[in-house]
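Researcher: Let's do a round of design. I'm pasting the structure tokens now; please hold your answer until I've finished.
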């Protein structure tokens, strides 16, 4: 059995296994062959047999007993075989490592260690641990703590073993046929750990969060999640979506019969599976609660007419559930353009580009140029600007693409000129000497360019400007694509400020005209685990904003207005994503004048962070408060941007905008793929209680040589009418890895 990941696949492959809840002995090679012939990809197996359970029960009931005997052929028939990789091992579910009775807990941990070690020896790569949640009771914190300690010890066994920790999705009662547990023996049942009956849909997630925190986000830990018949709220579903899911357990209670008596999933379950099965590491599906594998295989044989007439409609074999899941797999909707483009990059952390100091490779330009939306929107913006200016000036429009790259914006500008019949005087400015060769080639052979474009090999900030009819001229329209994932993180403000002296002072237009940075707190345990397990020599791993196609994460703060009901009638709420700051171009002339004065003169005071302070007009700070209705853990901040490319002078004409903000991207630039979000990590995750608030404090700072960000999260709660600070993160700072000017 191998893991099938999402990259490169149009639709996910479902790996489906069978869990026989009645089996008490390890499976045989015949069982594995039968499961394959039935259509399953894997099967669960106990590691020990019923004789071992009876031995453990006798030790528990004997006051003089203190040690469980070593495994022998009397207690297990499991041995290493070529079929072992197709097995999911089950640690005996009757052990209770969370028991408040020290003796029971100690003996249970002995069993846990022995069985996990033996499974690893046999070559089993995935083992399901005994459950913490049993029946209708919720374990108290002491029981959770004892369980977490046992799991932490198990992570030290077997270097290649994945430990699957079973959890219910919410606090609905768990029945024996819908979980990995069996009835406990009387000797152990009498000393079950403390429990509580309080209703709390997030109590299983709370317990999981404690377990994985105790284990320091260990890479060997994953979740076996039990899906109930009635799904919890969308927020609870999203919380589990962000966690390391390896197994989705589908007991028969998760299905409902259709009018013909065949098992099907509800619309809500279908929507959940469609979403979960698009994770980069696609979770496996595990069916349970049906009849045994042998009976299921026998049910596949064609019955005689008399036999078929006597089969009750409610008697459905596990193969019916399997057939339904295969049908559901074949009818998965295609991935949207952004998801297809991002396959293989989900949650992969990349350092932001340094376009002012590094010359980009051709492949980097090529990736950007594949965007089906961005350049079309740029063409619309240029066309509207050309029409507005030509109506005023009645002459050819001087248009410069600054940072022309391989020329896509110039091509779109020429197309806009052709479609509007507005003549232009085109300039393409590019500092990258390698890209400049392609611009020269394109100008010579592209019939649209036709050697009409004046090419300038220069940094836009040091260019002396256009010359029209042998006379120095100003630019009427300056077009650029300098935006980064957080709008200004690739120094668009500094670049355009430096080129503003080239723009006509009265009617000059910058495309884009303005852009805003947006942020929201998120739970991103997968990314945090990645950072935790990077080498300790990477001392700045938490002090760098990363570009990442955020995929397996959950929003923590939501707006109060719900979205239209989703499948199954579940309500969902849009995330609360707030604006940090804004930049607009061109700047008012007094701002540029003051900046130049600080650069060339001897100011009375230095810049706040060093230098002369001539770039301090591009410093920003925000303090944003996000309400947290449902508790969670903040691992970092997700950043987005919105930009107004051009707002026409005619107010009745819609502005041309781009957005990566999830709340507005579908409206403004659906299917755009040029930018991934940005991620600001927290070194230590911050827990936020129900009804709390997350305050995000961010700054954009500069010392005239580079630009960097600082970020911090503060948690507030109201206690007795007084707002109190209950959590503070370290201050993240990208100063050591700032963007050089």
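Researcher: That's everything. Go ahead.
Model: Designed sequence:
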């Amino acid at each position: 059995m191998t893991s099938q990941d999402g990259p490169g696949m149009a639709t996910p492959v479902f790996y489906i296994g069978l869990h026989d809840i009645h089996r008490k002995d390890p499976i045989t090679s015949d069982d594995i062959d039968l499961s394959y012939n039935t259509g399953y990809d894997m099967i669960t197996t106990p590691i020990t047999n019923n004789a071992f359970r009876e031995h453990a029960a006798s030790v528990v009931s004997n006051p003089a007993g203190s040690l469980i005997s070593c495994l022998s052929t009397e207690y297990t028939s499991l041995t290493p075989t070529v079929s072992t990789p197709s097995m999911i091992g089950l640690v005996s579910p009757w052990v209770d490592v969370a028991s408040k009775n020290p003796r029971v807990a100690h003996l249970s941990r002995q069993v846990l260690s022995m069985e996990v070690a033996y499974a690893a020896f046999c070559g089993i790569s995935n083992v399901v641990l005994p459950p913490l949640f049993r029946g209708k009771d919720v374990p108290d914190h002491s029981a959770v703590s004892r369980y977490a300690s046992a799991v932490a010890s198990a992570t030290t066994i077997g270097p290649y073993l994945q430990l699957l920790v079973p959890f219910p999705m919410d606090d609905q009662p768990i029945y024996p046929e819908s979980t990995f547990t069996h009835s406990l023996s009387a000797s152990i049942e009498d000393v079950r750990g403390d429990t509580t009956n309080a209703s709390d849909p997030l109590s299983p997630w709370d317990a999981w969060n404690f377990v994985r925190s105790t284990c320091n986000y260990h890479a060997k830990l994953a979740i076996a999640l039990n899906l109930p018949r009635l799904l919890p709220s969308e927020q609870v579903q999203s919380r589990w979506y962000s966690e390391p899911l390896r197994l989705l357990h589908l007991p028969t209670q998760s299905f409902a019969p259709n009018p013909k008596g065949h098992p099907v999933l509800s619309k809500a379950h279908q929507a959940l599976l469609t979403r979960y099965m698009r994770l980069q590491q696609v979770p496996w599906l595990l069916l349970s609660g049906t009849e045994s594998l042998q009976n299921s295989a026998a049910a596949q044989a064609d019955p005689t007419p008399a036999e078929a007439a006597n089969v009750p409609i409610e008697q459905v074999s596990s193969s019916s559930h399997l057939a339904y899941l295969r049908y559901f797999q074949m009818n998965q909707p295609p991935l949207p353009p952004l998801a297809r483009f991002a396959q293989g990059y989900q949650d992969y952390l990349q350092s932001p580009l340094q376009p002012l100091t590094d010359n980009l490779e051709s492949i980097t330009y090529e990736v950007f140029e594949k965007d089906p939306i961005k350049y079309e929107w740029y063409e619309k913006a240029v066309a509207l600007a050309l029409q507005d200016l030509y109506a005023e000036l009645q002459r050819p429009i001087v248009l410069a693409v600054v940072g022309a790259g391989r020329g896509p914006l110039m091509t779109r500008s020429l197309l806009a000129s052709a479609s509007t019949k507005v003549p232009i005087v085109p300039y393409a400015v590019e500092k990258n000497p390698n890209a400049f060769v392609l611009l020269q080639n394109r100008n010579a052979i592209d019939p649209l360019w036709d050697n009409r474009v004046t090419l300038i090999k220069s940094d836009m900030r040091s260019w002396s400007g256009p010359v029209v009819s042998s006379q120095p001229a100003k630019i009427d329209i300056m077009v650029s694509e300098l935006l980064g994932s957080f709008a200004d993180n690739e120094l668009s403000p500094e670049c355009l400020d430096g080129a503003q002296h080239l723009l006509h002072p009265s009617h000059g237009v910058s495309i884009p005209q303005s852009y805003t940075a947006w942020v929201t707190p998120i739970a991103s345990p997968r990314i945090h685990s990645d950072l935790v397990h990077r080498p300790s020599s990477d001392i700045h791993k938490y002090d760098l904003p990363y570009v990442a196609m955020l995929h397996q994460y959950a929003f923590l703060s939501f707006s109060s207005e719900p979205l239209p009901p989703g499948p199954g009638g579940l309500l969902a709420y849009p995330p609360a994503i707030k604006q940090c700051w804004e930049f607009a171009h061109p700047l008012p002339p007094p701002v540029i004048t003051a900046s130049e004065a600080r650069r060339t003169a001897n100011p009375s005071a230095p810049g706040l962070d060093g230098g002369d302070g001539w770039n301090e007009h591009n410093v920003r700070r925000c303090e944003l408060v996000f309400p947290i209705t449902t508790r969670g853990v903040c691992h970092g901040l997700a950043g987005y941007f919105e930009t107004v490319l051009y707002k026409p002078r005619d107010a009745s004409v819609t502005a041309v905008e781009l957005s990566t903000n999830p709340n507005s991207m579908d409206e403004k630039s659906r299917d755009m793929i040029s930018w991934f979000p940005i991620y600001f990590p927290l070194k230590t995750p911050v827990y936020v209680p129900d009804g709390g608030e997350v305050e995000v404090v961010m700054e954009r700072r500069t010392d005239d040589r580079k630009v960097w960000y600082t970020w911090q999260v503060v948690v507030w709660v109201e206690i007795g009418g007084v707002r109190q600070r209950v959590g503070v993160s370290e201050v993240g700072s990208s100063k050591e890895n700032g963007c050089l000017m």
